[in-house]
Amino acid sequence: MQQAAHDAPPQSGALAMYANPILAQSLLALVAGVVILVAPRVLNYVIAAYLIAVGLSGLFLGMA
For the CA atoms of the chain, what is the radius of gyration? Predict the structure, then answer.
């Protein structure tokens, strides 16, 4: 049985992109924290956007 092209390991010198949910959530939390510190009036919007983004990432990564 042959291995599919998308399952093959990257060639030397090639850049590979892998989804890392821990890194994405950490960066999102950092950005949200900075926005809240700079503009505390947008706290509700920042929290709502963060929860939606984390929920969607969990759904889509769980389905993969």
Answer: 17
Q: How far is the C-alpha of 55 from the C-alpha of 64, rounded, in Å?
A: 15
The beta-strand segments (E) located in the chain are none
pTM assigned to the model: 0.54
Read off the pLDDT of residues 31-55 as tens digits, 9 standing for 90 and up. 888 888 888 888 899 889 888 988 8
Q: Classify residue 28 as exposed, middle or buried by CB count within 10 Å of its CB (0-12, 13-18, 19+).
A: middle
Judged by DSSP in three states, 53 sits in: helix
